[in-house]
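Lab notes, practical 5.
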Amino acid sequence: MDLPDLITELRRPESYPHSPEDVEIHQTHISVVFLAGDRAYKIKKPVDFGFVDYSTLRRRKHFCRREVDLNRRLAPGVYHGLVPITGDLDSGLVVDGDGAVREWAVQMERLPPEANLESRLRENRGGEAIRSRLRRVAHRLADFYADASTGPEIAEYASPEAVSANMLDNFDDSREQVGTCVSESVFERFETLTRSELRRLRDRIADRSRAGVIRDTHGDLRLEHVYFLGDEETERLSIIDCVEFNDAFRYADPIADIAFLAMDLEAHGYRKLSNEFVATYLEAAQEEQSTELVDLYVAYRAAVRAKVSGLKALEEEVDEADRDEARSKARRHWMVGLGRLESARRRPALVLVGGLPGTGKSTLARGLADAGDFRVVDTDVVRKELAGLKPGESAKADIGDGIYTPEWSERTYETCLQRARDRLFDGDRVIVDASFRGADRRSRFFERAVEWGVPCRLLVCEAAEEVVVDRLQAREGDPSDAGVEVYRSMKQSWEPLDRFERERSARVRTDQPPEVSVESAVGRLQDWGLA
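Output from the prediction step:
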């Protein structure tokens, strides 16, 4: 039976024995999940990508059974078992019915999406509640790996040769994504750096393989697979959806496994939280000496997610909106992976240089561009360009008039976002020079940076008012038309940073020699791993 026909049939509530009110469908590149009432049913797509082969009904049944057995290790009670799908197109398909089997499905408890770590992270934005749960996950995984299966046969899958093959094959499997999901320059840099790290760490990988460290792990440890179910007092931790289709992806160094969750935290914009999670795990597992392996494995996990999303973007049965989302996710993960391996000076990043008029934003931005190899996108220049004016040509107007209306400002900021995106897609480092007075505009840049897979940091320029007034009164031929009146108006309407922004920002005094301000700002970039 063709997959589209199967999906159409299983959309019908009457196909299920418990008669749910409706059926919700979600697809990945290798499976389809049907959410029906309080249950979920997962079928394997009849695909053969080399690294996963579900091409026959017999193989799909085998891997459904493997999925149930393996996932019961970290999610007891969630996986109910294997069920047949019977019937035909004329009489209708039936889940867990009698007669000839047309397909096999894994039956599971339907888990509330708001209970997974991805949703809780959105809700809590990296607060103490998430940190506490991540510490619990780290300790649970340390215990899990200690008891997991091991032995010489499993260790072979994490030899230097096997690790290299997995990582480099991933690039071979992803080359068709170049140009759509990843730029050629980013792809080539990522592959070159991966090869270099594999050579550098070869002996360390070999030592761990010989020492019996390698385990039968989870293999797909993402935020959306980690659930905290029930109320706070009885909350139970369940980790679902491990890799069942390829032992080579599951037999691994535990560092490679926890690197998946570390990568996912970073891909959601939480690098600091990612590092805290890794540190907690390493301490719990008494593995503090293994930190040098983390970046390589985080980059590998990012490349795996990029490949998977890219494959989904190519599938005809996936609708266009989902394909667009898949392409966006692939781009994000390519950038996250590159960022883990690049040197601090070359790591793609978005730096916002903000502050009131006359506080020296543009001077600082230019200084940082020279010191840190950044490309600058200046809102004042872009605004004039959109109006058909030269940068130094005056467009002075009353506050909120001329080319300074809310509509003009919105167009200017959106153009700056687009230019930053294009630069970052090619692997560049970008500074956006703007006031960033409003929380909504700051938030938009931070959110887009997460979508693009690059770190975003804000430097707020500050100077004494008398210094600012002198600078503004002495301006001639500057791209900015702001004067003292605009400065004082914007000072009154400046919107304070929230907790998320404060954790990703620094204040820079600019009423001092420019080279001193640049040196101070470079120091903050160094603290963030961006210089």
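Observations recorded by the TA: The mean pLDDT is 93. The first helix runs from residue 3 to 10.
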